[in-house]
Prior knowledge:
Layout: H1 2-21, H2 33-44, H3 61-66, H4 75-103, H5 108-116, H6 118-122, H7 132-146, H8 150-163, H9 170-180, H10 184-208, H11 210-222, E1 225-226, H12 230-240, E2 247-251, E3 254-258, H13 262-285, H14 293-311, H15 320-332, H16 336-352, H17 357-361, H18 365-409
Antiparallel strand pairs: 1-3, 2-3
Amino acid sequence: MRRDALAALGLLVLGWALTLWVAPWSDERVNDLFVYRVFAEPVLAGGLPYRDVFFEYPPLAAPVIALPGVTGTGAEAFRLSFAAWMLLAAGALVLLCGALAARTGGDHRRALFAAALAPVACGALLRTHFDLVPVVLTLAALWLVCLDKPRSGLAVLGVGVLVKGFPLVAVPVVLAWLLGRGRRREALEGAAACIAVLLAGAVAALAVSPDGAADALRYHLERPVQLESVAAMLLLALDGAGLGEAVSVSSHRSDGLLHPLDGAVAWLGVLVLVVVVTWIAALAARGDAAGDERRRLVLAALGAVTAFAVLGKVLSPQFVIWVLPLGALAFAWRMHALALAVLAALVLTQVEFPAHYFDVVAREPLALALVALRDLVLLAVLGLSLRALHGQRHEQLLDARRTALAVRLD
């Protein structure tokens, strides 16, 4: 496995070079590096997030964003340093995908090399955003749970939430999986560990600046429906049907839509997300201690993350990074339809962003159609994940019936 891992990491580095120097993978005309750099400079000079510098992310995102600035906050120095920082995270992602595949009955080589091709599928998006870090923390948490260390795994999930909120949806899935296997004490202790981590982060943010922490929360609550989201596609469809005008607006560092029904559509997405995550958690809880139960856990948790990405009122291009490990692991598990759907979502995002992003902002029909197709593919990824979870349950029931029949015949 070590030789395979080294080969995969070598392939990753080659792909990373493409994102730095070879078009179209190197296209970074729209990115978050300027925002990160403007934040890092005062923080490294002694300023505190929330109090001295506006900060829209959870507290542990601050060191993740600021650390590359240690080598310099000039545009080129920060660009290269941040790329190196995210390359380390990408390397961890590759290794964790291989390790999780090995623990869940998949082909670790397939997982390693599929994950290593992420730069080719995603382009510069991988190295100009910090989303790889919470993804790695989510995978590390799942790996710990698969190693029968659920308390540590749930604590790490809490750390992931404090970097970027989306790993939160994996928490009920892990807890349901434990409870479904009669591991009530571990579930309670793991939940306590996760809550303790989250409370520590919240207390730290409030201690630095209650007003600044409240501003960060308010920022997300007041943010309009983002133009590339499923919710935005619904608002544009309503506009096209003459049911209210969807007005383009640039705010909260993104491009969004205002519509008479935007609040209702956004809350509908929240409701659907809660229902879907609850459904996934219920599916994760089913089964027994044999077979592909660790695979069920990982598939359910990453399916919940996909739901968070696709059903919210914001679907920024970098959110597809959250779905990337599901594709690599699906390939390792020979769930080829699911793997191809994830790959299609990644490639469609790279085609659209950043090359055609301003066409999307201008609401050019072909550009919007491209985004709508990508969103539909992401919904298909979610649907295929749910189908796979149901399929595993169906196979278990058939195995149980076969076993019962064999006992009777004996």
